[in-house]
Amino acid sequence: MDFSLYTPSVDDCKQKCPAAALRCFADELSVLCEEMKVSSLDCTEPKLSQSLRTLAKKFNKSESDCRPCELHPEESPKDFLGVLLNILEWINSKNC
Predict the structure, then answer these.
(1) For residue 75, what are the contacts with CB-CB under 8 A and spacing of at least 6?
(2) Dihedral, CA of residue 32, residue 36, residue 37 and residue 38, to nearest 10
(3) What does pLDDT average to over the chain?
(4) What is the pLDDT of residue 74?
(5) Are the C-beta atoms of 75 and 5 separated by less than 8 Å?
(6) Going by fewer Cβ within 10 Å, which terminus of the chain is more open, N or C?
């Protein structure tokens, strides 16, 4: 797949904007899913996107300084998913 996705950094999530970062990942998963469908691949995006949106609601931080999703760097789908995995692992370790 030859396209890129807006990808918040782990630092964006850790330092000040976890909810905004998770919502951005949820939105970009929709893009990934559409690209997968074009390539005749299955996609379970709705479940994961909804879970990310639900998780985002659990963070109670001001988002006045958070960047819009479209201002994050664009990364390959593989790198996008790697960063998402790192963020989810960080959230999991923080809440255990």
Answers:
(1) 4, 5, 7, 83
(2) 100
(3) 89
(4) 97
(5) yes
(6) C
Q: What is the CA radius of gyration of the chain?
A: 13
Write the CB contacts of 81 (distance below 8 Å, at least 6 apart in sequence).
none
74 or 48, greater pLDDT: 74
* 52 has pLDDT over 70: yes
Burial 40-78 (b: 16+ CB within 10 A, else e): eeebebeebbeebeebbeeeeeeeeebeebeebeebebe
Residue from 42, 24, 21, 23 nearest 33 by CA: 42
- Residue for token pair 């963070």: 59
